Amino acid sequence: MKLRCAIYARFSSDKQSPASITDQVRKCREYAQARGWEILDDHIYTDEAISGATAERAGLQRMLAAANAKSFEIVLIDDTSRLSRKLSDSINLSDRLMFAGVRIVFVSQGIDSENEQADILLAKHGIVDSLYIRELAKKTYRGVEGKVLNRLHHGGRCFGYKSVPIEDPKRRDQYGRSMIAGARLRVDEVQAKAVRKIFSLYAGGLSIKATTKRMNKDGDASPTPRAGRQHSWAPTSIAGILRNERYRGVVNWATTRKIRNPQNGKRIQRDRPKSEWVRVEMPEQRIVPEKLWLAVQQRF
To answer: How far is CA 229 from CA 223, 224, 226, in A?
Structure first.
């Protein structure tokens, strides 16, 4: 009787190619075929564009449920980082699968839970996977911080400005065009007029709610809404603009940080102390005069 196998595959970012899943499944199929094992097509579980730092993944949870239901004897995974990039989760998930009577094989690394050295190998690779995700976070932070300090736009939309690409004349793409070295924000005069009006209305005595109603009544330019939402001003948008120092020509970055809740794997945002903020003066981006800015903050 052939051993019945499930497959679990994952890739972490929406910037990665979905072909990664196909390649992982292919390698697992080849591994099973070489040993005469049967791959159950109904038990191929995948998670796309989901971080390996959390166990809250739909495909993974379905695979665990099927394992507890004795639907297969073996689960094939391309490598340990696909199961998790967090050592504690890797060990916990492996223990849960083995408790359910399921054998685990990490194809690329040749780790088989039936091997006596499996626990040691899993721990070793788990440490490497955990270090990788921490180092990646540091490199990402350093890269974005560099953009901010070089007065470049670090991403996202900001009402009142338009993003202008910066061409690098020394570098060319495969079509001979200048490569984009980054982007800077430039004041959008139509939107800037709306921003100054918001500050003036609030400084003049209107509440945030009243300011919102006035902006919508007058049909002033408003931020592009999310899909399915009405194109109009909301009190939260007005409040956010009134407190955004960029409009006075100061960019604050790294004012918050995201940490992962160890119980549910969800990331939450927490404020950083002001001593950790990256603060850059950008007078060329000023939209609101300093006197008007201070009048608004005094009202707050």
So the answer is: 11, 9, 6
